[in-house]
Specification:
Layout lengths: L1 H9 L4 E2 L2 E2 H36 L5 H29 L3 E2 L2 E2 L11 H8 L7 H7 L5 H6 L3 H15 L4 H27 L1 H16 L4 H31 L3 H18 L2 H15 L4 H14 L2 H18 L5 H14 L10 H12 L10 H29 L12
Antiparallel strand pairs: 1-2, 3-4
């Protein structure tokens, strides 16, 4: 709100001591976006390697593990498809039949090159997506932002790291966990400047375009909320009802403390102790199931985040006036699914994943500034969906393992 007020008062030509406020907003906003881009490669690589190594390090994953991974993969895919359907129906990036690029002050200097990178692909190019998953040079892939290949390499490295002799495996795991811990600290530090970055980026948009810029942003906001609501209130309860065969209303009641914590902290990792307590004591799932399913879910299961990444990337493409064909939308779905594995469970971490998707499909990373004004509230909402999905997974897997007493009594 302060950014909206200041941007409106200064306008595009306001200046102080000969320095335009617009230039100050651009400087601060660019610094924040550059910091986000700086942490992408080491954060995603270390996060995925340690996460996959954690799964492989348990020895033979076994029946419980395969059920868990199948559930997490399936619900994330369903969430992305719900988001894709919602953004194609609502089209938040289109205003009165025209792309919103002028209204939201997107940079059009390289629009022709953007269109060349994104458009003109046919169904045969699906093969090209899978070819790009295997980079010829992993260092070059990291330098050039070819995140699909980098993610695939990280998945392979994390898995086979646990298949070598224990002494060397532990050394490598300690190394990558150390990098991940450092990157989490750096990410926390960068996010301390998020209010300043958001202020500058929003003030810049308002200074250039006025209040009209919030029209497509509001449609985007409610598109995401609607899609999250469909996934949490329809998709997941249907899985509970027809596969787990429990009353979904009791699950909502049992998980209310955890969901409230998730909403207030916007961090699935910080909510994990509360989630464990609710699923064990209020839902009645065994410690054997929760101790495996929930910590893993806090790392790799990000339904709400994957949905949001998909909608955000599609919204930005619509705002640029670029029509994404089947192949590009398939790429968005695939990258959203893969990056949701490596998103850290901290506030605003999905902004990093969105920049990966934009890079992969050829859109400018700077466009992520368009959604920052509403990101925090949506972050709180999608974290609640992430946590609820984790808990539904624990209940569903517990039931399929033959556990008794799950959600048989109302939560107290």
């Amino acid at each position: 709100m302060l950014a909206v007020l200041v941007g409106h008062l200064t306008g595009p030509d306001g200046a102080l001591f000969g320095i335009r406020f617009l230039d100050i907003y651009s400087f601060l906003g660019t610094m924040f976006l550059n910091a986000l881009k700086m942490i992408i490669v080491p954060l995603i690589v270390s996060s995925i390697i340690t996460g996959i190594a954690g799964i492989g390090g348990r020895g033979t994953v076994g029946r419980l593990g395969w059920k868990t991974l199948l559930y997490y993969f399936s619900t994330s895919l369903l969430a992305i498809l719900v988001g894709l359907l919602a953004v194609n129906i609502m089209q938040p990036g289109i205003v009165d039949g025209e792309p919103a690029k002028d209204i939201v002050a997107l940079d059009e200097t390289d629009l022709s090159s953007i269109e060349e990178r994104v458009a003109g692909k046919g169904a045969g190019d699906v093969v090209e997506i899978f070819i790009r998953m295997i980079p010829t040079n992993i260092v070059a892939a990291a330098a050039e932002g070819q995140m699909l290949g980098l993610i695939f390499f990280s998945l392979l490295f994390g898995y086979f790291m646990t298949r070598i002799e224990e002494r060397r495996s532990k050394l490598l795991l300690d190394f990558w966990q150390g990098i991940f811990s450092v990157m989490m600290k750096i990410t926390d530090w960068v996010m301390l400047f998020a209010p300043l970055g958001v202020f500058a980026l929003v003030a810049k948009v308002v200074a250039v375009t006025g209040f009209e810029a919030f029209r497509p942003l509001l449609v985007f906001f409610f598109t995401v909320l609607g899609a999250l609501a469909v996934h949490m209130l329809i998709t997941l309860p249907l899985l509970l009802r027809f596969i787990a065969r429990v009353d979904p209303r009791r699950q909502f009641s049992a998980m209310s403390p955890a969901m409230l914590t998730a909403f207030s902290t916007a961090s699935s990792s910080a909510t994990l102790p509360v989630t464990l307590d609710c699923v064990e004591k209020r839902a009645g799932v065994s410690n054997r199931t929760t101790s495996f399913v929930l910590p893993l879910g806090a790392t790799v299961n990000m339904d709400g985040t994957a949905l949001y990444e998909c909608v955000a990337a599609m919204f930005i493409a619509q705002a640029y006036g670029i029509e994404l064909g089947f192949v590009t939308q398939f790429t968005v779905v695939l990258v959203a699914l893969l990056t949701s594995i490596g998103v850290a469970g901290i506030p605003a971490a999905s902004l990093v994943a969105i920049t990966i998707i934009l890079t992969t499909i050829g859109l400018p990373v700077e466009a992520v500034g368009l959604i920052l004004a509403v990101d925090r509230v949506l972050d709180m909402c999608r974290t609640s969906v992430n946590v609820f999905s984790d808990s539904c997974g624990a209940v569903l897997i517990g039931r399929t393992e033959g556990e008794q007493g799950i959600l048989e009594k109302p939560a107290t």
